[in-house]
Amino acid sequence: MDCIIIDDDATARLIIKQFCLKSERINVLEEFSSAIDAIKYLNNNSNIDLIYLDIHMPTFSGFDFIKTLNNPPKIILTTSDKNLALEAFEYKSVVDYLVKPITFERYNKSLEKLDVLPTKDETTLNDINKSEYIYVNVDRRLVKVNIASIYLIEAKGDYINIKTNKKNYIVHSTLKKIQDKLPFNMFFKVHRSFIINFSEIIDIEDNSVLVRQDVVPVSRSNKSELMKKLNLL
Amino acid sequence: MEKPNLSFIKEIAGDDEEFQNSILDIIKKEFPEEAKMFNQNFASKDYNEAANNVHKLKHKISLLGLEKGLEIASAFEIDLKKGKTQLHNNFLEILNKIHVYLYH
């Protein structure tokens, strides 16, 4: 398994590198003291299986870095902060969260977790194999919804409003939960409160997108990713 | 009063003396620069940047087995982000202890 290490602290990089050597499972291809340099490297090297990533770095944090990755490899976060774990696991690709200083015993445990999470290729395959339908709980009934018929999902407090060709479903759930069930190449979260179906976009204007008859806001941070995914002339 | 020591570095590196020495060498190389940056930012009242310096120094403080020192540094980092500086002297004491241990 090939990895890179991103950490502004040389001591932390050395320790991870030595552990990788010792484990004989992880091959360190490169190490970077800044996330920006790592992004440049990853633009030309897509064959990385794993990234050891420090969260707290000057100017560009580990979380900022993850947001720039389209199809991220597995990521093991390293940090001196114990209290960022909740945010860390919001990212699907994050396998583990190691608090520095890291012992070899703890490092080995994180390797066990690597085996549980699917690899990048398997994730893509899982997306293809995702069901064409989802079942949603509406008034204690499980209702079958054709995924392709969904054009917009809006978060409203503790509920989400799933809008389809035929009707709308108000379901007690979160955008995160439903996003995990949807094929990533078909749906995109344009805003913290909205997921849209790409194929239903009619037009895009500044910071909003018209999906059928609904004008949906696009947050600044998601705009560039949205534009990348579109089939632009 | 706790003193800097190699116990944690030995736990990390096991019997590998070369590994132990490499860790210590990098700490010796990086510590003065990081401490200097902290002092400069603190003196110019850039407390947010000083908090970032404390954050980076925390790893070295814990590697040198200073558990109490790590607690103080963590509290100081949070305080600095709020512009509070009461723990400054306590933090300087930790830096001083490390300096004496590494270079004397």
Main sheet attributes: strand count, strand direction, barrel closure of chain B: none
Specify the helix fraction band of chain B. Answer: over 70%
Shape of chain A: elongated
Structural class of chain B: mainly alpha
Q: Structural class given helices, strands, pairing of chain A? A: alpha/beta
Number of domains of chain A: 2
Under CATH, the homologous superfamily of the largest domain in chain A reads Response regulator
List keywords for this structure.
heterodimer; A: 233 residues; alpha/beta; Rossmann fold; OB fold (Dihydrolipoamide Acetyltransferase, E2P); five-stranded parallel sheet; five-stranded antiparallel sheet; 8 helices; 15 strands; B: 104 residues; mainly alpha; elongated
3D architecture notes:
The complex is a heterodimer of chains A (233) and B (104). In chain A, strands 2-1-3-4-5 form a 5-stranded parallel β-sheet. Helices cover 32% and strands 34% of the residues of chain A. The radius of gyration of chain A is 20 Å and the shape is elongated. The relative contact order of chain A is 0.09. Chain A has 2 domains: 2-126, Response regulator (Rossmann fold, 3-Layer(aba) Sandwich), CATH 3.40.50.2300; 130-229, OB fold (Dihydrolipoamide Acetyltransferase, E2P) (Beta Barrel), CATH 2.40.50.1020. Mean pLDDT of chain A is 85; it is low at 121-129. Chain A contains 8 helices and 15 strands. Chain A is an alpha/beta fold. Chain B is mainly alpha-helical. Chain B has one domain. Helices cover 79% and strands 0% of the residues of chain B. Chain B has 5 helices and no strands. Chain B has helices at residues 7-13, 17-43, 47-63, 67-81, 88-103. Chain B is elongated, with a radius of gyration of 14 Å. The chains are: A alpha/beta (233), B mainly alpha (104).
